[in-house]
Amino acid sequence: MDPVPKLTRADAVAALRNPLAFIAARWTPQPRTVRRAALSAVVMSVVIVVTGGAVRLTGSGLGCPTWPKCTDDSLTATSAMGVHGAIEFGNRMLTYVLCAAVGWAIIAARSEKPRRRSLTRLGWAQFWIVMSNAILGGIVVLVGLNPYTVAAHFVATSALIAVATVMWQRTREGDGESRPLVGKPVQQLVWFLVAAAVLLILVGTVVTGAGPHAGDSSEVERMPLDWETVSKVHAVLAWIVVSLTFALWFILKAVDAPKGPLDRTRDLFLVLLSQGVIGYVQYFTDLPEFLVGLHMLGSALVWIGVLRVLLALRERPDAELPDLPLQYDATSASIAGPR
Fold first, then answer.
1. 221-253, pLDDT tens digit by residue?
2. How far apart are CA 151 and CA 292, in angstroms?
């Protein structure tokens, strides 16, 4: 076993000045370690969505009535605040776990050899989104769970999931020039799918803002919209996303597309069907909290699935590899793209 080098005064000063560079100079993670670190950030991004939903669904949104402290006199929840204070404070503490996961992803990406600046930038992008969203979460509490700030809080978390998913995908790719695996028509169809999914998420936040689960038992402002009408619009958008996904899968099958896009589209379709069943059941059973929580988990998984379909449309070889000639399917080149 190699001896551990002694830490000199100069090393300590260097570590304080630039800890990431100090660690990177002394540690080279395996590729699987970098992938797992990026995946941990994705998982924690989804977990924070579910626990945030639990705060709202249990009426614990104002369990800690102020921010950044839990009360004016205490940084943490007290026994007098009961279960609502514990739930809200616990969700706040999970933000630190999320920060740790993002920090681990940044350290692993920065230490990888050769250095990949694109991965490090994606890691830092997650960090700044987390910091900004933590402040926004505090504002949500300070303004008494205003539904518009709650919606913005969820949208910011969706942005975090998007960046974390892109980083996770990039850890499994090289830094060479991106090569399309499908033709322009399929790419355009997928971008329509992404746009529909974004609209679905945005309308979903309006359903939440107008719906009965305000996040606290007190009188909380709601969006001045008819909840059932907005829910029906949300359902229509969900069917549009399902239809686009099925059409994409059918086209990819018809043109004998590569396995990657086909598998990702199939996975998305299955998640969408499960999410649709949960959505209709919760609608016709007066929104039981457990099913609403599952639906929030499903929304995060749908968003990840849509992004994975988009990212599966191209490949990135290692930068040092020579360019390979593109081969086209003679019968369906304009749709399927290079193979």
1. 889 989 889 999 999 999 999 999 999 999 999
2. 16
